[in-house]
Amino acid sequence: MFKAVLIALSNSSLDKATIANAQQLNLEPGTKVILVHVLPYAQDQSEQDVSRPLSVDVELPNHQLEEYLRALGKEFSHAKVVFEVVQGEAEVEIIRLAHIYNVDLIILGTRGLTGVDRILARSISSEVVEQAPCTVMVVKSDE
């Protein structure tokens, strides 16, 4: 059914529910599963030209995140799992990777913001739903 599924993770308690919902899809063997974590830009790097590399003093915890993603990837033993740790605005990077991998489905969690909080705090899930080139599954927090 799905040839490629992008799962956006945040290294939070919501990841477990997001992975559980993805597993309920019973993905076919060989389905490409892209596990994504987006690191925000540091405050002083936000206006940096994207065509220029980050300065050398910017340390990214990629190694720990890659290990975390690999552990979650073991839940999809029959799939072709790809790991992406990128830096930028979460909704922009999720949409960019969805295009690159030509995904059929994006799965991501939501913090459950409503009303004014949703407007002021910028809902990543709403932005992804609006801009996605495919179907989006939004997983609500149990909290």
Description:
With 143 residues, the chain is α/β, with parallel strands linked by helices. The protein has a single domain, classed as 3-Layer(aba) Sandwich (Rossmann fold), CATH 3.40.50. It is built from 5 helices and 5 strands; from the N terminus they run βαβαβαβααβ. It has a 5-stranded parallel β-sheet with strand order 3-2-1-4-5, with helices on both faces. Helix 1 links the parallel strand 1 (4-9) and strand 2. Helix 3 runs parallel beside helix 5. The longest helix has 12 residues, at 62-73.
Write the layout of secondary structure elements.
Elements (H helix, E strand, L loop, with lengths): L3 E6 L4 H10 L8 E8 L22 H12 L6 E8 L2 H11 L4 E6 L4 H6 L3 H8 L3 E6 L3
Parallel strand pairs: 1-2, 1-4, 2-3, 4-5
Helix pairs in contact: 3-5
Write a concise keyword list for the protein shown above.
alpha/beta, 5 helices, 143 residues, Rossmann fold
- The side-by-side strand order for the widest beta sheet comes to 3-2-1-4-5
Question: What share of the residues does DSSP label as strand, in percent?
Answer: 15-25%
Q: Please state the average pLDDT score.
A: 83
The CATH topology: Rossmann fold
How does CATH name the architecture? 3-Layer(aba) Sandwich
Rg on CA atoms, Å: 15 Å
First CA to last CA: what distance? 31 Å
Number of H- or I-type helical stretches: 5
The total strand number stands at: 5
